Amino acid sequence: MGDVAARLAEIVGDKNLLTGGAISEDYAHDEALTAEPQKPAYVAKPATAEEVAELLKVASENNVPVTARGSGSGLSGAARPRADGLLISFERMNAVLEVDTGNHVAVVQPGVTLAELDAKTAEAGLSYTVYPGELSASVGGNVGTNAGGMRAIKYGVTRNNVLGLQAVLPTGEIIRTGGKTSKISTGYDLTQLIIGSEGTLALATEITVKLHPRLSHGATVLAPFGDFGQVMAAVPAVVSSGLAPHILEYIDNLTMAAIVYNEKLELGVPDHIRETSEAYLVVALENRESGRLQEDVEQVGELLGELGATDVYVLEGGAARKLIEAREKAFWTAKAAGADDVIDVVVPRTAMPQFISKARELAMAAGGGALGCGHAGDGNVHLGIFCKDADRRKRLLTDIFSYAMELGGAISGEHGLGRTKASYHQQLEDPAKIELMRRIKQSFDPAGILNPGVLFPEGTV
């Protein structure tokens, strides 16, 4: 162990290698509710791709498991290290290397946070549009989980907004995939294969992201509904309207009440409407011109009224911003309320009503509850699961995930499988697909050092 530590220190420098008591608790976990914290044997903080490559060579030669870490804001346990492992923290690789206004791209290192990238691109009137709900999240972490967020309905998820990577293979080889071009049809798309692989295939050390013009005018419409089914029925109508909302969210009444209370929001919804509402639809619109934006707001208001909304409220700037920020932090609201797990199942959006109804029924039958909100425009349902008994909760989640897959959905829409959901995927997914994924993993990582226990349960690769 001392010899390995010495070799790692030679690569990154003594002050950038932590061992033993020098490793803080922050490196022991991400934000998953069900993954117990675990300090690694080593924390290395590289500054270059070449240093990452040398670290991985040492790890491969000594069979040391490796976990990559950006900001540690993930929700699936993928950034929780192994006790005998090396945690590679990208906190020093946090530069925006280029904002290319001609090609509408930015080139960044993996440790750059979304807040830092947003500030830099704003100077050029551009924007990176992936907002998974936590602006302290790193771009590299987003690549690892294929993060999504509320704006995915209009702009897509991470894989729709990353054009190229520099990545280091566990053998120490440095490769480049994609680039500043918006399309490519030359061989396998390794960029897309690495995105969402949760640090199990390669470690991204440079990321080329797509940028969009930053629109200067925006408005948020809040519509309460007395019947949950009406909310869900309204979603395809709004999508089909041509109004192109960049946010289209549903929030159930209990979650909205918790958000309003915790954030001390003043939304202007009268008590009698709030008390009779089962759920809310949040529609955010944007435009280059204020006049056109106003026309769109009026049109969506009329449409929602026709679709059964009890009323329609156009939120002022401060209230709108606070509501969106509170919705982005719904995980923390669920955590504060005592949720035992948080899931992010995705189903075809037309199947959302029956999925949510069934999930609630299953939770009640297990003696628990399932509450939450979701990206109504893309079928991504975020539920806080309340079920204290671990065995019952495991059976409940198995049933919920199984039903989502029956509907044509998947276990995770944007949080990833990590360590917390890997066993469910192994149990429920097509064995032929699992075996193909296993062969891909072995091809990239023959020594099996990258994030063992993530995507594949321990000992199954």
Automatic annotation (TrEMBL):
This is Glycolate oxidase. Residues 35-214 form the FAD-binding PCMH-type domain. SUPFAM superfamilies: FAD-binding/transporter-associated domain-like (SSF56176), FAD-linked oxidases, C-terminal domain (SSF55103). Coiled coil: none annotated. Its cofactor is FAD. GO terms for molecular function: FAD binding; oxidoreductase activity. Keywords: FAD, Flavoprotein, Oxidoreductase.
